[in-house]
Task: structure prediction
Amino acid sequence: MKISLVNELNGRFGIVAEAQGYDGALWLRELWLDRRPVAMHQDRIAVAATLAFGRKAANELTLESAISPGTAQAIKNFNSNLSLNVSPVDYNQKRFPEGSNALRVVGDDSSAALANSVEARREMSIRVLRSDRFAGSLMSMESLSISSNAFIFDVNAAEQGEKGFARLAVGVLFAEDLGADTIFYEGTAIPETVRDLLISCGLKTK
Amino acid sequence: MTNTSSIDLSVVIGFKNWGLNRLELAIRSIRESFGSIKGEVVVSDYGSTEFAETKALVEGLGCKYIYTETDGTWSRSRALNIGFSISEGAVLACTDADMIFTPGTFQRIFEVVSSNPASTVLLECRDLPKEWTDVEVREKGAQWLLFDEISGLRGRWGMGGMVAVHREVVSKVRGLDERMHTYGCEDIDFGERTQRAGNRILWLDEPGIRMFHMWHEPSGPAAEANPNDLKIIDANRYILYNDKSFIRNTTSWLCAEDPGKPLVSVAIATRNRAHLIENSIQSVLAQTVQDFEIIIIDDGSTDNTRDIVLGISDERLRYFRQDGLGIAAARNLATKNARGRYIAVLDDDDIMLPWRLEAQLKSITNGIQGSYGAFVNFDNESGDLTIFNEKNASVTTAFERGGAPGHSTWMIDAAVMRMLPYDETIVSGEDNNLFLRMLRSGFRIVHCGEIVSLRRLHGHQITQNDGNSHVRFAGLNRYFFRFNTASHNVPKIEELGRKMPWVSVRGGKDFENLVRPYLPDHLVRRTVVLDEEISESQLAQIREAAPEVVGVTRFRQTEIISRTIALPHITWSQLHVFAKLGVKHSVKILETESLENKKSLNIVDHEINSFIEESLGSKKNKEQIKLLVIADRLLSSDAFESTSDFDLQRIVYGDQTIHIYASTCDSFSMAIGKAKLLQSLEEVVRVDVFLNDAKSRLLTKVTGK
Result:
């Protein structure tokens, strides 16, 4: 499976997966967002792509840019296929992106209000909105609302215990922009295999 | 193919005269390889000449046996599909009667498929050497460690040795392709289609998990030496390399179909169109794909719509009523009640062309969630036709105008329609709105390359009666669609969209000839001509619906060249009979008149044109002038200087006989000279002169006798 990034003239940014070799054909090939993140750490992109598409990769996962060995290993574990070949890998030491905020990933229907103060660690929310109902993006000092087709990935995902993974992927992409080093789902515990994947790119979970 | 049984895995073996010793060894090894799982073996005997012994052997081993009588043609696809239809396992596997398996192999296969339902599991075949035929295996017993050492790995170029998938996948792709027969390609085609349907391919390569092929003389080279078989093998290869759809056997399928899970739900929302909806429903009933249901949502009709709909006797018709909640709500109710994998939209005043569902299903391939096509507007008074073609739908082509393909041509994955329902707050343009939302969400809806619908123009259309709302909502739809685009990029995208080509459709400039026979009954009179031989029972069923049947037989001397059945004056209420019987037929606008009047006989014209096309071809290939003389009886040798240079054929039409004399002339002037001479004869009804091909008729003289 080959992963690439696309910036379209109409303002959409996308992670595009192309099935290859023994991969199963993808029902949906693109994870679209109505805004491109500013900070684009390769490990974070790889983890986001893996959350959206990684379980469909049969033998190879090829990314646009090199990732760290730890993230590559975490991707293989997540895929339950240790013979999965993840490339390219960069063996040079690299820092994780900086951050200190906690980022809560929510969907359209969330109404939870955030109560930040100077004493406590700042909590941000990223509201991943359905692209068939919303267009564009909107930001405040506490939240980012962004239109995406992530909701569609839940259709098949729910049966395989992967509901919400694509929305989490959107959160991973914007974590650095929003100064977060911790990410969590509203109301749902993050599975262990996903936790390891997030940790590998410098994101803690609650 | 829903599974409610306790069987874990079914292994199906396709079989025909393949040797009982081999079969028994295969069955025994498979049963031993089930281990702790509940497995069953199904032997689908497709046309063995002697089968009583096979049946006794298989059932004596505690396995299922099903026999199908055939015309002698071997088709592994059909054999396996029939086997699948009586299988009960949650996982389905297929193999051949010359394969043996190590203990525990099928248990492992079941474990892998169960934990990875979106996987197609394959085993690489290991060929035993010449010294190990089924005879030696029987005599010396299976020696797995030895076999591992002495066998040769065949390589991963075929998938026929063993394929295992979850049974839902067999249903999703509708089994192996039943067009394929004799030899070759059906295994690879099946495997690749499961991959196109979303399965990843998993070659199981673990210690101790083995499949061995007992040696025998190869069948492949023998098949390829026979020229007839070569054509068939080429045809199989053509399907494999060119047909990229994953759903097959759409027009007929030997696997038992579950009427509760049709392939397509045709959704018709209606209100007070009692005078038109029957024709729409009839057009669905006449589809070449018969695996559908029709969902009618009556949005509060005050006329006799309900009586009209319920008066059509077909158990696939489902009627629902709601009290005037609007068309979007009606369509959402159709989606909610749809049981099909795909939803095809049809307006209650439109006509679905018979090939529509088949063409659209064929266009569904990797990562495609739906299909649409071109449509032809027809004036309900005059029958005037105008074609509306489309470009390939994308964000780019939709960008400038925010337009969508004709709604009455859509066929969309039901899962998409459930995720993205119609917006019930929109009064008009709800279809546009939905299509643009689908594009924004990354769904791919493709043009199927066909004209699929006839759209009726009449006085009470929504777009005619509610133009202001339509414009208002169209503007809002477009604004939403373009909202996230930076203004400096707008002209660039619009320019790109304008440059995209229009999709060519079958029929092209001659589209009128293609679609006119399917206009409503008040605009055309049509004749159905059967394109294949049918059985007596099929003919009897046809006669029940359409009593007027005319047989047209063409003879050369006493040899029958063709036999055609023509049925004149067929109405829409009768057309579905041919589709339901699966009989290949053509629908033409032909009128028949009395032979006694010696006027032009257009059914006979059809036969004559067939005759001309056969002798001249439909393409211009060389200069040829063909003279055709049609007489109501044999020309006497007195009246006719010489008939020896004429090829004579007879067409028997009902109780009449037409004689056709065909001759090739060296020049046009010679042809005209002969024509003038012959038309004076009392027996002659008509004289034609053709140049080069059947479409270039230079002269027709009807004598009026």
